[in-house]
Design brief:
alpha/beta; 39% helix
Length: 332
């Protein structure tokens, strides 16, 4: 048995594909970095294994990571709902999914695990469960940690993208592009990537408007907000470059010119990552006091229970959490 501190892995919404991909990872032992403590419901994990027609090894039921005596453990959070159907929004399933995130975060804050990895949750289900202010994992983690500034970073081999904003409408995301907000995200990105092992992160900043605004002809955000933020960041000894046209900046990063791109809204960054390599893409959260990575896909209600879900994203998320906990971002 390895002596490495374990990672907590939440099973996500039982009505989605989270338990299935977790079962596939367990059965194949595709992720071999650290011991894994799964958090969710045993019935959901067993249903996921049955859907994929695989046999799970014996997984010890534990109450805390300190009880772990092998490579795998399960903190069981509860029984099945009275009525269960794959691909259907359920308040019971939504509550289980949030409770798993809360339990994993508490273990991280207590120092009992090296970090947490999350399978997908369903926004409608968690709202049905009464968590009306929790839009997604990031909002739950802010609630639990009191973090003042957070960001989502998507990673896939050859490309990393931090987002200025995520869960905002497009018009609200454009309004969020201010000098103060861009500068804050640049500082957060620089500090976090340094902590994760990059000595001097090279950060590219994407433009908001076509052709980087054409010196104000196609929008003033580049001139009035983004460029001043980049200038101040450089004065703070942050290696920031931009604003750069969004139609070319991601390709430049893939070619090795930059370590990370700051995208200015959700789809600007997500599309680039998922087109480059969707199946190996994962998410990491910046600004919280522990490592958290996640698969970069949703609950996939349309294929849940059919046994066809792809587990490569969860394998990549576990491997990434292991690397970030060790301060070895460069190896990803």
């Amino acid at each position: 048995m390895t002596t490495a501190q374990p990672l907590a892995v939440t099973l996500g919404d039982p009505a989605g594909i989270g338990p299935e991909v977790a079962a596939k990872v367990i059965a194949s032992r595709a992720a071999k970095s650290r011991p894994l403590v799964f958090i969710g419901s045993r019935w959901a994990l067993e249903r996921g294994a049955a859907a994929a027609c695989i046999t799970l090894p014996d997984i010890a039921g534990i109450q805390s990571p300190g009880e772990l005596r092998g490579e795998l453990g399960l903190i069981d959070l509860g029984d099945a709902p009275p009525v269960f159907e794959y691909g259907v929004v359920s308040s019971h399933c939504g509550a289980l999914a949030v409770r798993a995130v809360e339990r994993a975060a508490s273990l991280c804050l207590a120092g009992d695990v090296a970090g947490m990895v999350t399978c997908p949750i369903n926004k409608a289900a968690i709202h049905a469960a009464g968590y009306v202010d929790d839009i997604g994992h990031q909002e739950i983690l802010v609630r639990l940690t009191g973090a003042e500034s957070t960001a989502t970073m998507l990673m896939t081999p050859g490309l990393r993208v931090v987002h200025l904003s995520t869960h905002k409408s497009l018009i609200e995301a454009a309004r969020f592009v201010t000098c103060a907000n861009v500068l804050a995200k640049l500082r957060l990105t620089n500090a976090t990537l340094r902590r994760w092992g990059l000595a001097n992160p090279r950060i590219a900043v994407a433009a908001l408007n076509p052709h980087a605004g054409e010196s104000g002809l196609l929008g003033r955000e580049e001139v009035d907000e983004i460029a001043p933020a980049v200038a101040q960041a450089r004065a703070d000894n942050i290696d920031a470059t931009g604003p750069l046209p969004a139609d070319s900046v991601f390709n430049r990063a893939i070619d090795g010119e930059f370590d990370v791109v700051l995208a200015l809204y959700h789809d600007q960054g997500h599309i680039a990552i998922k087109v480059h390599n969707f199946h190996a893409s994962i998410t990491a959260t910046l600004g919280i006091p522990f490592v958290r990575t996640s698969v970069d896909h949703g609950t996939a209600f349309d294929i849940a229970g059919r046994g066809v879900a792809d587990e490569r994203g969860l394998v990549a998320a576990i491997d990434a959490a292991d690397a970030l906990a060790a301060g070895q971002l460069a190896r990803l």
